[in-house]
Amino acid sequence: MTAVQPTSSFRPSLFALASVAVLALAGCQTSSTNILAPIDRAQGSSENISSLTGVIQNNPRDPDGYNVRGSAYGRAGRYKEALKDFDTALQINPNFYQAYANRALIYRFMGEDAKAVSDYNRAIQINPQYDAAYIGRGNVYRQAGRLGEAFNDFQRAIQLDTTNGRAYHNRGLIYQARGQHKLAIEDFATAISLQPNAPEPYNGRGISYIALGDYDNAFDDFNTAINLDGNVAESWANQALVYEHRGEKARASKSYARAVQLDPKYQPAKDGLARTRG
């Protein structure tokens, strides 16, 4: 990430620069809600799963039923049951590329990256036009620090005219990690246009605005992220960083404290709170 030039209005500039770098790095590594982790546990209700079980009982040789119920199990965080359903779907139809990609996502959440990549590879082998598999595999690569391979996967999904904002958001994170902030801002803007209710691209774009010295636009983006989802620690820490830049130490401390409350292990917030407390 390129260095942010210190300003006369912000005395603790070295601390701020370190915070911006760490926040950007954290943004590149996150796998949080909405855009980066498309499993919505609220949709995995016991009622829905029970209904899907009834469908399977009526037609036990239909792989679609197992695939859908496996996805519901995944949304509920019941990963072992999800894997079992995807296994069954693939036994019935070995060319069910969507089931491979869905099983890969479960492996990813279980931390079994090699198995996830293998399943994404199989999905792509069966259907080279399947954008979701490129995005999923790219996310595994990105989180493993294999940014070149990740970039190529997101690029491929975009070339396939994906309408999934995660492809642009994740490519934007890689541009950001490379210090190419204008390109990152363009990608985050596209991600926002595709998935306007996700806070992640607003946070990403705000960090790149800060890297370019545009604190006003960054502040707007961080506030929007908070309005969309007030339970994301990164958003509050990012907002605090702008308050700190403006010399509003009390407000910065309050926002850092909120971030720490949401995620006690989030180091940028802990460091910021230590700087601004008292």
Automatic annotation (TrEMBL):
SUPFAM superfamilies: TPR-like (SSF48452). GO terms for molecular function: transferase activity. The keyword Signal applies. The keyword Signal applies. Pfam families: TPR_1, TPR_11, TPR_2, TPR_8. Residues 1-26 form the signal peptide. Keywords: Repeat, Signal, TPR repeat, Transferase. It comes from the Bacteria. This is GlcNAc transferase. It comes from Paramesorhizobium deserti.
